[in-house]
Amino acid sequence: MIATTVCFYLVLLAILMVFLSPSAEGCFILLACLLESPLCPFNTTALG
């Protein structure tokens, strides 16, 4: 029980550190563009 809890918090801490790093924003933008998300800043509304 205690080992599971400690492991869960270590994984949570690792995920938090990844998203707080300076490169996390770049990874998010790249992932948004690869998934064709409307959050991608490089999407244009003009066709043609």
Topology, please?
Layout: H1 2-20, H2 24-34
Structure, explained:
By secondary structure, this protein is an all-alpha fold. It has one domain (1-35). The protein has two helices and no strands. The protein has helices at residues 2-20, 24-34. It starts with a helix and ends in a 14-residue tail after the last helix.
Task: Please tag this protein with its features.
48 residues; mainly alpha; 2 helices; 62% helix
The fraction of residues assigned to DSSP E strands is under 5%
Task: Give the overall shape, derived from the CA principal axes.
Answer: elongated
Provide a count of the helices: 2
The arrangement of helices and strands along the chain is HH
Instruction: Give the helix/strand class.
Output: mainly alpha
Percent range for helical residues? 55-70%
Low-pLDDT ranges: none
Biggest sheet overview:
none
Question: Gyration radius, to the nearest Å?
Answer: 17 Å
| Average pLDDT | 77
Number of domains: 1
Using DSSP, what is the number of strands?
Answer: 0
Distance between the termini: 59 Å
Task: Give a quick summary of the entry.
The chain has helices at 2-20, 24-34. With 48 residues, the chain is mainly alpha-helical. The radius of gyration is 17 Å and the shape is elongated.
